[in-house]
Design brief:
Elements (H helix, E strand, L loop, with lengths): L3 E8 L3 E10 L2 E11 L3 E3 L2 E4 L1 H21 L7 E6 L4 E4 L9 E2 L9 H8 L2 H8 L8 H6 L12 E4 H10 L4 E2 H5 L13 H7 L9 E2 L4 E4 L2 H7 L5 E3 L5 H7 L11 E5 L2 E8 L6 H5 L3 E4 L5 E8 L2 H12 L6 H10 L5 E2 L13 H8 L1 E2 L10 H27 L6 E5 L6 H11 L2 E4 L4 H13 L9 H9 L3 E3 L4
Parallel strand pairs: 1-6, 10-11, 14-20, 20-21
Antiparallel strand pairs: 1-2, 2-3, 4-5, 5-8, 7-9, 12-13, 14-15, 15-17, 16-17, 18-19, 21-22
Helix pairs in contact: 9-16, 11-13, 12-14, 14-15
Bound molecules: beta-L-fructofuranose.
The site of beta-L-fructofuranose has 12 residues, from helix 9 and strand 15.
Length: 483
């Protein structure tokens, strides 16, 4: 039988899941316990997440995961770990009760806020302190736009989404380090908050819970909840709670491949290099790169590129308009659409907000060749998005290597749901002239499970230990560059 069973709660912008991770003989296998939808909604005047609904799905998923573990002949779950998208937070009162909605990072409340804050702390200084790219949605700017922080009772707090789930599970309040880095208020060294930035945003540092690192135990499931779910008072272990941190931990690279080049491909495409130290030069800031905190003190030097969001939002528009569209058919049609007709810039913040995405992409497309003024069919529009993504990957990976003074790597690892997109993988290999290694698709859940398994002693502590287990656990597909 398997040696341990752990539950990974993984919340994405469009869907969430609870996975059972079985770790045995140096391999991880994942069994889906529960999948559910997540979506943006206008609530209380802002684009928000329905945390109450997510919490109900998580509880159901954990109960299911425990049943699945017992079906495998195991006593139950040995631990639980939680990750989600970054930057968003909830406000909690002194007793841990949620105070107001969890507003989503794509909401318009941060429009102009980064500029206003830059008037108090120059952009150069912010970057030198934190190494974080100044995206409009950084937690720091969301907090600066926040009108709910004044007059909070003593003992209130601000918790990032996975930490909020951790509080609901255990009653403990911590700020997990990898996700803390995405706030734009953590020092690049990771050694605490940049108080100068919190001041400028009007945030009382007492609102922020103490830091916790992946692998440390947050607490145990509250007795009442454990009884309700039938799961026992199991430990909740901090993982790379930023989904991208967990995903990049599960890149199946070898130690000698350093610096590892990756794309974590989901709603966003996060493209860059895994480094030992941040790149804090002005040139990196000007190029829009960020230095996010990874598991085991690694740094993800990367660029945020709108990824499959562009496609999923376009599909949402076509469906609203009454068309029946499914991704697979659309990608097959896009593979046969004429090449190199149109381009967009998938790093343009104009694509951040939801709504009428097909219209917006069409209006933004520039003409490369042919007689048409814009992409007119869904297949042409998707082809335009994918070719633009592949070219952007080429440009951004080249820039990352230049800025980090690293050679262009021999292979690029693509992980996450987007790694299933064979057309995009091939276009990327062709644009870069390097091999693209696709998979694992469930990188985030694997990274989450792996940190728990290591904390339990089921994976060794040696450097590269987790990635060796990931390589044993997954099938990869290689795309060689053509031409
Ligand atoms: C991916 C991700 C990105 C982050 C964006 C917003 O799911 O976590 O890493 O930049 O969502 O949180």
């Amino acid at each position: 039988g398997a040696s341990v069973a752990v539950a990974a709660v993984d919340l994405g912008a469009t869907s969430g899941r609870v996975m059972l991770g079985l770790v045995e003989d140096g391999r991880i296998s994942l069994l889906p316990a529960h999948r559910f939808e997540n979506r943006l909604e206008q609530r209380d005047g802002h684009l928000s997440w329905d945390i109450g609904a997510l919490w109900a799905e998580i509880r159901h998923g954990l109960a299911q995961a425990s049943v699945l573990a017992r079906d495998q002949g195991l006593p139950g779950l040995s631990s639980i770990g939680v990750d989600s998208w970054a930057v968003d937070y909830g406000i909690v009162g002194p007793g841990g009760e949620q105070a107001g909605e969890v507003i989503a990072y794509r909401d318009h409340r941060t429009d102009g806020v980064a500029d206003a804050l830059a008037a108090r702390v120059p952009r150069e200084r912010q970057f030198a302190l934190t190494g974080i790219a100044q995206q409009p949605f950084n937690t720091l700017y969301q907090l600066a736009a926040e009108d709910r922080l004044t007059g909070l009772p003593a003992g209130s707090g601000v918790l990032l989404v996975p930490d909020l789930v951790g509080l609901l599970l255990t009653g403990e309040r911590r700020t997990e380090r990898t996700n803390a880095s995405t706030t734009g208020a953590l020092l690049a060294s990771g050694d605490g908050w940049a108080s100068e930035l919190l001041d400028a945003a009007g945030v009382d540092p007492a609102l922020l819970a103490p830091l916790i690192a992946p692998g440390e135990q947050l607490g145990t499931v509250r007795p009442g909840l454990a009884r309700e779910l039938g799961i026992g008072e199991v430990p909740v272990v901090a993982v790379g709670s930023h989904d991208t941190a967990s995903a990049v931990l599960a890149v199946p690279a070898r130690e000698e491949d350093a610096p590892v080049a990756f794309i974590s491909s989901g709603t966003w495409s996060l493209i860059g290099l895994e480094l030992r130290a941040p790149v804090l030069d002005e040139a990196a800031r000007e190029a829009g790169f960020t230095n996010e905190g990874g598991v085991d003190g690694t740094v993800r030097f990367l660029k945020n590129v709108s990824g499959m969001w562009l496609v999923s939002e376009a599909i949402r528009q076509w469906e609203e308009d009454g068309a029946r569209v499914e991704l697979e058919g659309l990608l097959a049609a896009a593979a046969h659409a004429p090449a190199d007709r149109f381009r967009i810039d998938p790093t343009d913040p104009a694509f951040l907000a939801p709504g009428r995405m097909a219209d917006r992409v069409r209006a933004a497309a520039t003409v490369l060749s042919g007689d048409d003024r814009f992409p007119s069919t869904p297949a042409e529009l998707v082809r335009c998005i994918l070719e633009s993504l592949a070219e952007t990957y080429r440009d951004e990976l080249t820039a990352a290597c230049r800025l980090a003074r690293a050679p262009l790597p021999r292979r690029l690892h693509v992980v996450g749901g987007g790694s299933l997109n064979a057309l995009l993988n091939q276009l990327t290999a062709d644009a870069l002239g390097v091999e693209v290694v696709a998979g694992p698709m469930e990188a985030t859940a694997l990274g989450n499970v792996a940190v728990q398994a290591r904390a339990l002693g089921a994976i060794g502590q040696e450097p590269g230990g987790i990635r060796a287990v990931i390589r044993e656990s997954t099938e990869l597909e290689v795309f060689a560059p053509r031409g």
